[in-house]
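Render this sequence as a predicted structure.
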Amino acid sequence: MKIAFPVTENNGLDSLIDPHFGTAPNFLIVDTDTLDFKMQKNQKLLEDAVKCKTSVFEKKENIDAVITKCMGDGSQRSLSKENIQIFQALKETVKENLTLLENNELKPFHIFDICQNKKNKKEDGCGHHH
């Protein structure tokens, strides 16, 4: 399974998950079978013309799932349309969340669970309205 994590810096499996999916500068893509990983730039941030688009992965990446702390409804709809599963990150690092996923301890992400109830960063929300 290939899982994408929004991250700021590449620290391998010890990378910290970026607080917001859509504005994360990079994605760490991890193959859960081999634990091999690679860094990919967030395509939405590469050109001004595409910032409003919700597709952040190329089809060739074959991403199966995303683990994130917060995500807007546009990205959620886009990923769901591509049959990419979305899970709610419960820990800070990629490695910790992979362990939770392996133990079936991550629940599917739902925007109303985190983002809509906490609209500002002081409440651990994503800082904007969806």
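Summary. The radius of gyration is 14 Å. The mean pLDDT is 82.
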